[in-house]
Automatic annotation (TrEMBL):
It is an enzyme of class 1 (oxidoreductase). It is found in: Cytoplasm. Its cofactor is Zn(2+); FAD. Keywords: Cytoplasm, FAD, Flavoprotein, Metal-binding, Oxidoreductase, Phosphoprotein, Zinc. GO terms for molecular function: dihydronicotinamide riboside quinone reductase activity; metal ion binding; NAD(P)H dehydrogenase (quinone) activity. Its EC number is 1.10.5.1. It comes from Fundulus heteroclitus. Belongs to the NAD(P)H dehydrogenase (quinone) family. This is Ribosyldihydronicotinamide dehydrogenase [quinone].
Length: 277
């Protein structure tokens, strides 16, 4: 069956490099027979703030409003605002989600963070019982495709911005993997704004080439939830012991006070945790 792709796009300008990257994805994936849907957040005027306005009717506790609890209840009752429900419907239909954006302050733009906060609601995207490797979206793939303002060398282990693998950990593990997504390696366009036209063209051609087989790519490796106990969520002793003699830590975040596994958030097949899955 033809795959369905959702591109969550966050850039203000149709003439931007991000727009070109988004357009390339639409063109190549459509040519492969995929159904491609685009959520153009700025064009939609998508609301970035998670507030009580996201809930139709009365909330359960107006005096001590808790978005996590109230949005879960509203989702269960079909009382989330129309824009959230529309995006959740798009996400439910998709086999692959591509987030296309310029990196702002080592993270995503506010409007995209608002999409994450509002659309990935408690109950719909995660629960205490269904998260990480047992997450709700474990049958879906997701990836980050973004531009940087800094050169690649600046995002290295010896660069002034630090290791890009560390920068990506909260986004890829704390959001995508937390919701169960199989996370594909990111597509990073290094400083296109300061590159010459020929180099920008080459970046887009590399992206087009990757898109040809994107749906067959293996995801990044993360540690299975089964490797942790079910009380304090600490690594089980046998897992810790098995890895004690290894040179590198398990992941960027769960590093066991060892050197970080190189490229584990940037290339599939990298890292030291795949043997534990």
């Amino acid at each position: 069956m033809a795959k369905k792709v959702l591109i969550v796009y966050a850039h203000q300008s149709s003439g931007s490099f991000n727009a070109a990257a988004k357009n390339a994805a639409v063109e190549v994936l459509t040519a492969q027979g995929c159904t491609v849907d685009v959520s153009d957040l700025y064009a939609m005027g998508f609301k970035a703030t998670a507030t009580a306005e996201d809930i139709k009717g009365e909330v359960k506790n107006a005096e001590n409003f808790c978005y996590l609890e109230e949005s879960k209840l509203a989702w269960e009752q079909g009382k989330l605002s129309a824009d959230i429900m529309e995006e959740q419907s798009r996400l439910t239909e998709a086999d692959l989600i591509i987030f296309q954006f310029p990196m702002y302050w080592f993270s995503v733009p506010a409007i995209l963070k608002g999409w994450i906060d509002r659309v990935l609601t408690n109950g719909f995207a995660f629960s205490q019982e269904k998260r990480y490797s047992q997450g709700i979206f474990k049958d879906k793939k997701a990836m980050l495709s973004f531009t940087t303002g800094s050169l690649e060398s600046m995002f290295s282990p010896t660069g002034i911005n630090g290791d890009m693998n560390v920068t990506l950990w909260p986004l890829q593990n704390g959001i995508l993997h937390y919701c169960g997504f199989q996370v594909l390696a990111p597509q990073i366009f290094w400083a296109p704004s300061s590159a010459v036209a020929e180099d920008r063209k080459s970046m887009l051609e590399s992206w087009r080439t990757r898109l040809q087989s994107l749906l067959e790519e293996k995801p990044l490796s993360f540690i299975s939830l089964d490797c942790f106990d079910d009380k304090a969520f600490q690594l089980k002793p046998e897992v810790h012991e098995k890895h004690a003699s290894k040179e590198f830590g398990l992941t960027v975040g769960i590093h066991l006070n060892k050197p970080l596994p190189p490229h584990s958030q940037m290339k599939n097949g990298c890292g030291c945790c795949s043997e534990l899955l």
